[in-house]
Protein: DUF1178 family protein
Amino acid sequence: MIRYSLVCDNAHGFEGWFSGSADFDRQMEAGLLTCPSCNSAAISKSLMAPSVSTAQKKEEKQAVAMDLAQKQVMAKIREAVAAIKANAEDVGEKFPEEARKIHYGEADARGIVGQASFAEVRDLLDEGIEVAPLPILPEDAN
Ligand SMILES: [Zn+2]
Structure:
């Protein structure tokens, strides 16, 4: 019999007795191992490390995962913004004027991007002209 220190995905440590590592693997695969504290079946062998360091590692992993998720989201937003900009004319500060002209058929219907103040955007929306803010990306905000 061997004793394993086990840990669930909620960082609860507990112990289990097994006839060998194959026995552990078999029980694990069969879903027979669950955390006595939270019933989680996401159990892994702890390497006899103090529970503090296990918790720290978990936090580090979560931080890395969050960072990665954030980067993926940023990449998606960046792609979307690039696609919008590639298909739109940058009219700069003339944005409210151009948006109005397009809306009233005085200019060719096309996608435009540009700057508008909060008040200008509000006026456009009041007139039923659909405008949407482009997200400001970190590199752009300088
Ligand atoms: Zn647990």
Observations:
- The pocket of zinc ion is lined by residues 8, 10, 12, 35, 37-38, 40 (CB under 6 Å).
